[in-house]
């Protein structure tokens, strides 16, 4: 049984698949992975075809479609190449914060450039994700007449050093128990980036440490309401779990596809290794895990499109999909034997990307906490 997609959604899948086939070059991918280079040309071409921000409103150069359509694109991209696919789909990371909570002026000034492939956006939340009740590492905002002076360091900034603006969480100098969300524009005095991380996976997605030394943030650069930053961040974080689940789903499918291609050609003891029952059972387990993940990921995406987002489903999708991607990619490395460790066969890179997806945007402990809260409910 398949999750029944609408005709338009199937057409999107086909268009994305054809684009990836023509644009994602294997040798180029290997070189960019080694050098941690962002796939600028491919990203720009994808934007021209409307694959960036398809779930954003048309008035901001988005596609006016849904979270499910965005997930379908992410899945197809990562199925073809997990590293390029993730870099493209994370190019507009944090733009949702501006869309959902930003002013009309902020949206009009930045969102079209992001959707059209002219600008990256980044999230600066002093770690992989905002942690409730933990403001120790958030930069401090000192109030001045027409805004704030922001000082501190923020780790793990996705698209750090490459974006036109960053959505950052900061604590107030007079009350550090609350967080506000502000826009930090590229090029401001006192803004810098160092510690560009040489990561295990997702190496085409730039990640850096942001340094702020009395960076002047204007009053109009507040995103949403003052002291509501943590609440706003958690709302969009749940939506990002759906995207990461889709990236992981595509990564898992891509690893399985490469395993299938290999075992159908490789011979041992005079016959294809795909004929051995032990191989068949491994492939069956991998396929079953992926199909279960697909149902859950699509269901989570549809919940956001229904205007009644299921945070529990989103957390389950992210937790399940990334675990599946790691397990399937790991088994793919095993199935390919010695070749599985070689860059030529891709699966080692898919494994590295899968492991990174498992960690970003919320690790297993945080996701389990969210799921448990929703399953257990209030305890009297």
**What's the number of helices?**
12
How is the CATH topology of the largest domain named?
Butyryl-CoA Dehydrogenase, subunit A, domain 3
- Given helix and strand content, the structural type is alpha+beta
CATH class of the largest domain, please?
Answer: Mainly Alpha
> Beta-strand level of the residues, as a percent range?
15-25%
Tally the structural domains.
Answer: 3
Report how far the terminal alpha carbons are from each other.
Answer: 42 Å
Query: So what's the overall shape?
Result: globular
Radius of gyration: 21 Å
Instruction: Determine the CATH superfamily of the largest domain.
Output: Butyryl-CoA Dehydrogenase, subunit A, domain 3
Average pLDDT over all residues: 92
CATH architecture of the largest domain: Up-down Bundle
Number of strands: 10
Instruction: Give the SSE string.
Output: HHHHHHHEEEEEEEEHEEHHHH
Percent range for helical residues? 40-55%
Largest sheet: 8 strands, mixed
Which stretches are poorly predicted, pLDDT < 50 over at least 5 residues?
A: 127-136
Oligomer state equals single chain
List the helices and strands and how they pair.
Blueprint: H1 7-23, H2 26-35, H3 40-48, H4 67-80, H5 82-89, H6 95-101, H7 104-115, E1 120-124, E2 140-144, E3 147-158, E4 163-172, E5 179-185, E6 191-194, E7 207-218, E8 222-223, H8 229-263, E9 267-268, E10 271-272, H9 277-305, H10 311-335, H11 347-359, H12 364-376
Parallel strand pairs: 1-4, 2-4
Antiparallel strand pairs: 2-3, 3-7, 4-5, 5-8, 6-7, 9-10
């Amino acid at each position: 049984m398949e999750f029944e997609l609408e005709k338009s959604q199937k057409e999107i899948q086909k268009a994305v698949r054809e684009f990836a086939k023509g644009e994602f070059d294997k040798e180029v991918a290997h070189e960019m992975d080694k050098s941690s280079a962002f796939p600028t040309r491919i990203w720009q071409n994808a934007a021209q075809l409307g694959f960036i921000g398809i779930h954003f409103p048309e008035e901001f150069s988005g596609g006016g479609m849904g979270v499910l359509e965005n997930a379908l694109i992410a899945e197809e991209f990562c199925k073809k190449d997990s590293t390029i696919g993730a870099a493209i789909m994370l190019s507009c990371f944090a733009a949702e914060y501006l869309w959902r909570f930003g002013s009309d002026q902020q949206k009009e000034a930045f969102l079209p450039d992001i959707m059209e492939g002219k600008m990256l956006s980044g999230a600066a939340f002093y770690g992989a994700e905002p942690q409730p009740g933990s403001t120790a590492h958030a930069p401090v905002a000192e109030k001045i007449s027409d805004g704030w002076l922001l000082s501190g360091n923020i780790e793990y900034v996705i698209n750090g050093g490459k974006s036109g603006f960053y959505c950052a969480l900061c604590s107030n100098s007079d009350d550090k128990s609350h967080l506000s969300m502000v826009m930090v524009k590229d090029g401001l005095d006192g803004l810098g980036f160092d510690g560009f991380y040489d990561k295990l996976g997702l190496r085409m997605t730039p990640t850096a440490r942001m340094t702020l030394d009395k960076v002047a943030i204007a009053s109009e650069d507040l995103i949403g309401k003052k002291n509501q930053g943590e609440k706003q961040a958690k709302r969009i974080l749940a939506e990002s779990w759906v995207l990461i689940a889709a990236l992981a789903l595509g990564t898992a499918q891509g690893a399985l596809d490469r395993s299938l291609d290999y075992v159908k050609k490789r011979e041992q003891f005079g016959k294809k290794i795909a004929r051995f029952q032990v191989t068949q059972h491994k492939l069956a387990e991998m396929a079953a895990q992926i199909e279960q993940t697909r149902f859950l990921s699509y269901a989570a995406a549809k919940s956001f499109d229904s205007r009644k987002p299921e945070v529990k489903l989103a957390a389950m999708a992210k937790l399940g999909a990334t675990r599946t991607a790691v397990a399937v990619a790991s088994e793919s490395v095993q199935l390919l034997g010695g070749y599985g460790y070689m860059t030529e066969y891709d699966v080692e890179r898919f494994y590295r990307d899968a492991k990174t997806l498992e960690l970003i945007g919320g690790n297993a402990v945080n996701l389990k906490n969210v799921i448990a809260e929703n399953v257990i409910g209030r305890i009297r």
